[in-house]
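Hi Y.,

Following your request, here is the sequence exactly as I used it, all 235 residues.
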Amino acid sequence: MTFNNQLVDKFLDAVFPLPVQFGVSEDDMPDCICFFESAVKEVDPAAYVKYGVSKIAILSPNLNGIVIKIPFNGFYYYEYNEDGYEEEFWEPFCWANGSDESDYCLAEYEKYKELKTRKLDCFVAEVAYYKTINNTRVFLQEEINPNRELDSKSIKKPSKKSRKIADKWYKKRKFDISPDWIAGCIDKYGEAKVKRFLKYCNNIDMDILEDAHPGNFGYRKNSTPCILDYSNFND
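Below is the corresponding structure, written out as tokens. Let me know if you'd prefer a different format.
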């Protein structure tokens, strides 16, 4: 994974230190996300921010195909108090399936390393640990185009044979992944390897496909299919 080290450090200098309670709420976008948007654009006007429940991502065409991922450490939620008014509460993460239950990015990184030892890493986006700043780990991941349209000139339509196999598997497992995407994996990596990957996900690490909604799978720049978010938020 090659990247612009100086630009990555400039982004991190702009957004750190992070708030002690760093996360999003179910209902709105907290001030820290707005701060991120303005901070990264001061460094690079082409940069932008995406976020999920468990992490925030900094992207820019000038990062040369990598994404900076910073984990949230919890989330905000609202409940009615005794007077009938909504009150904001903070809940730290404690269910990430890795060596640190509060860090979903770390859990994803550890899953990637395990898949690599099993020679199944082709199915997921490459992720690397970058550095720790103020007790927060920062990770870099290859940039993936989520759920790219299959009629795109750069995406080859899967073969009928692979699509037939994918349809059969899809009905059995009920993956929330397009059968076209599964068929594309069969065409690219071979039926035996895809079957081995799905068996691993079913029997050893169900997290990988548990949250595989259309926004979490897609295609690399070279049009090979892969999953880009596989830590499975489960708080």
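The chain has two domains: 5-143, 160-227.

Thanks again,
Q.
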